[in-house]
Structure formats: C-alpha cells, structure tokens
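Exercise 7. Given the components listed, write out the predicted structure of the assembled complex. Treat all entries as one system.
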Amino acid sequence: MTAFEFAEGYSAYFLLVVLFAIGLYGMMMKQNLIKKIMGMSIVQSSVILFFIVSAYKDDATVSVIDYTRGVTNPDLYLNPLPHTLMLTAIVVAVVTLGVSFALVIMIYKRYKTLHEPTLLELMK
Amino acid sequence: MSDSNLPLLIPFTFLLTALLIPLAGSVRRWASQPLAVAACLFSLGCSIAGMARVFDSGTFRHYLAGWQPPIGIEFVFDPLAAFFLVLITGVGTLVLIYSGPIAAEEIMGKRIGFYALSMLLLAGLTGMVVTGDLFNLYVFLEISALASYALVAIGDPRAPLSAFRYLTLGTVGASFYLMGLAFLFMSTGTLNMAEMAALLPSVNHEPQVVIGVVLILLGAGLKMALFPMHAWLPDAYTNASSPATALIAPIGTKVAVYLMIRVLIISGFPSIIAVISWVAAVGIIAGSILAISQSNLKRMLAYSSVANIGYIVLGVTLANPLAFIGAVLHILNHALMKAVLFMSAGGIFSKLGTLNISQLRGLPKKMPFTTTAFLIAVLSMVGIPPTGGFFSKIYLIFGAIEASAWVFVAVILISTVLNFFYFFRVIEFSFFKPATKADPAQEHKSETLKMDEMSMSMLLSTLILAAAIVVVGVYNGGIVDNFIAGAVPGF
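Answer.
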C-alpha cells in the first residue's frame, strides 16, 4: 500500500482528526464562552462522525434483511452498532450543550460579559 | 437468582431517588435529605451484601434484560468493584448526613436540586463501577459528570464560571475517551470488557490499539485532574458550596482512576504507562508545591487532591502487586481524609466566616472536635502511623522499591515533607499564632472565643470518618488481605 493509497483510503479519518483539532483549537484559543461551546460541539461531532465512518463499507446497505442481495454475506450489510451507540452519544452531547448554555446564561446575568479574560479579571 | 440483581439495584436506586426527590420535595420541603440518605443507606446495604457474596462465592454478573454478554450489557460485581461500591456509598451516606444543616445554611433555596443532583452523581459513579461494558461506562461517566457540573455551579457567585471551565474540560475528557474507545472497538469489534480483554492480546501490536489506550488514558487523566490537566479542579472545589465539595472531592475523581485501572487491566498494562508514572511523579511534587502557596484552605485542599491523585496513578502505573495495593489503599485513605478535611472546612467556614488560613487563630478553642477530626486527617495526609495514610505510602514505597524505581521512592519521601509544610501551616496559624494587638479585628475575635461547634449531625459524621481513618490504619493488614488482595490483577 503506497502512501497515497493509504491517505486516500483513510481520508475520512484524517478529515475527522483535523475537525477534532479545530474544535480543540477553538476551545483553547477563543476568548468568548459561546465560541468555546462551539469548539466543544465540534469536538463531540467529530467523535460521533468517527464512529459512523468506522461502520462504512463499500456497496453495503442498511442492516435490514434484503433477499435480493442475499443473507449470507456480511460484507453486504453495514454494522448497525456504531450508529445506535452514537444516538446515545448525541443525546449526551445535547444535554451537555443544554447545561453549558444554562451556565453561560447565569454567568452573563451576573457579569454582563462573556469575554473570558474580563471574567477572570472580575472574579479576582 | 434474585440477588444477582444486586449490581443493577445500586445505581438504579439512585436514579429512582433522583426522580422521587423533586416530587417529594414539592410536597414536603424537608423530605429531600432523608430520602437521599435512605437511598444511600439502602445502596450501602446492597454493596455490603454484594461484597460478602463476592468473597464467599466469587464474581457474579447481571445480564440486562437477559441478553448474554457479547450482545447485551452485563453488570459485573467483582472484588475491585465491590471495594469501590462500598467506599462510594459509605462516604456518600456520611457526607449526605453531614450536609443537612450546612445545605440549609449555604444553599437554602436550592436544596431539592442539590439532593436530586447528588443522587444522579452517585448513580453515575456507582454505575461506572459495576458496568461491564465500555460504552455503558461512557454513559454513566457523562451522567456523573453532568451532575457534578451542576453541583459545582450551586455555590458562591463565581461558581458558574468555574463550573463552565470544568464542563468544557470534562467534555473534552469524555470525547477523548470516546475517540479511544472507537479505536479499540474498530480493532476488536466488541465493547464488552471481558471479551475485549480476551481479544486484545491477539491484536496487541497494532498501533491503533496503543493509540486507543493512550486516548482513553488522556480522557481519564482529564477527568481525574492528573497534574498538567488539573486546571479545572482548584476553582471548581473552591467556589462550590461546602456540601457539594465534600461530596465530589472524596469520590468524584477516584472513579476516573477506577476507569484507568479497568482499561489498563483490559489492555494488559502496555509499556506506555512508564510515561504516566513520570507524569504522576511530577504531579505529586507540583501539586504539593502549589498547595503550599495557597492562602485559601479549600484551595489548598484542592491542590493537595491533585498531588494525591498523583500517588494513586503512580501506584497503578508501577504495575506490580505491592504498588497496586498501595494505590487502592490510598484511594480508600484519600477518600476518607479528603471527606474529613472538606467537611471540617465547611464547618469552619460556617462558624468562622472565613477560609483564609492566616485567620484561623483560635480554631482549636472554638471548635475542639472539628479540630480533632481535622488533625487526624492531617496526620494521615502527612503519613504518620497509626493513621491510614502511613500504610498506603509504605505500600507505595515498597512497590517503587520492587520496581527499582528509586526516583519515585525519593519523590514520595520528598512529597511527605512538602505535605508536612502545607498542613502544618494551618496548624501553626490555628494553634500557635499570637494575636496581634494592633489589629482590632483580631482583638474583637479573641473576645468571642467561646466554644461554638458544628451541629450534631455534621460533627458526628465527620468524627465517624475521622475514626475510620485510624481504624483503616490499625487494621490495614486485614483490609489488604481480605478486600484488596482479591482485586489485584495478574501483572
């Protein structure tokens, strides 16, 4: 397997790792709390997509028995487990978003700003 | 077969009570605390019964809805899980008994929320301990994490921002865990812990397994506030209300250690853990030094938590039986010590109105029993026999000697001296500091130096835990032989 084939075959994974890094960058370098939440959301989404991509197979279909395709060859059907797992992970991500927005609202009501350096200054 | 439901019963009692508390609280406001304590006591009973059964007839499992492991989710009650369950529910019970008066004082209008959330926290923590499925563990991890974000946010005016920083870092930790799990899942095709442990040796040299384990350890490190990833912890502990800190600090981060132990057992202690030993050793020293420079008592205790997580992680990653025993024993000791320290800090704050270490003068006269409990915990923290802290440190040192890791032996000994420094600063200020005549505030205080103790339930639970520290120290041999030796994995 040449380097190019490797890069092509795993292109989706590389993209998702880049997405993960973008999210981390946003969380670390952005100074607005809402932008930090966006970064956090990107990180979570990249992990969710990572699982989904891992279930992908060429020429495969959803895991419902289809007699025209045959029922003996597992290569013709996707693995449904990552998708179902990620349903749960999406729920967790939504709940986390909810809690973080609630906290941001509390912070804004108290300090009238969401700029982190200013907040840290006010907290002293 | 009926009591094989035990592993399921423990987290689900907490989940059910978390729903019942708002219902009961809307009718009778006072009902929330007794309900929470009752749920804790029931789970403690279940944990002890399960522990007795584990040591009687070995590990037992519960298959959710009757589905066998590779397909379904199983709940496993093995010696290590039994140890953690009794610890979590035991400390949880005493902290919740303690929390009654101080919650009424500090977070009056939010008590129902506090108790409901603490039930969710305990459900998540106990669920993480009993589950035998790695994805199920993630779900429980997030349940406990979300509950603790909200618990931290109930506190002084700065608490929401600390909780926000805790939330972002905690979520990244969970994302790292999930990413690592994706790698392990892709290389083995299973999420069941036992099956994965059986399958991993055959794929052990694949780089993706190593990457997966490293990502999971990173995530666990963020959750347990291992040294370079500890940024969220001091603010969160300092700004949360006293009962919330007393509940989260002793058991919250320990369960992330449990997650690390599980993953290391599954992956057969890969050689990468040598790096983590060094990180932990740096964390021990750095945490202790940072603790010395704090002026707020709760903040100092938070940094000491960072240092103590270092001990535990060091013990686990040295990967030999003695160090492992030391680490597990230190988890027990540190949970007891930190509970006592934060509980007495809560009491001190409510009576003296300050947590500034330099203003604790007259503490022993004013609160003799609290000071006694605090002192026992400090002695154990420093590692003076017959308290528990001495014996876990001895095991850790023997473990380090067995691994011929002389640097780590030195680190543990140096950190003991550092512990001595920062705790005896508190004792110096409270016992020996003379009142400065020029300071009218101090003079005013010396007039009102009569005994003013914490209320009975707070004092009683603090003293029980303080007594437990000594009991653990005196009977450490029995505890190690009966409860911990069975949990030591093959190295």
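Discussion: The mean pLDDT of chain A is 87. The CA atoms of residues 26 and 39 of chain A lie 5 Å apart.
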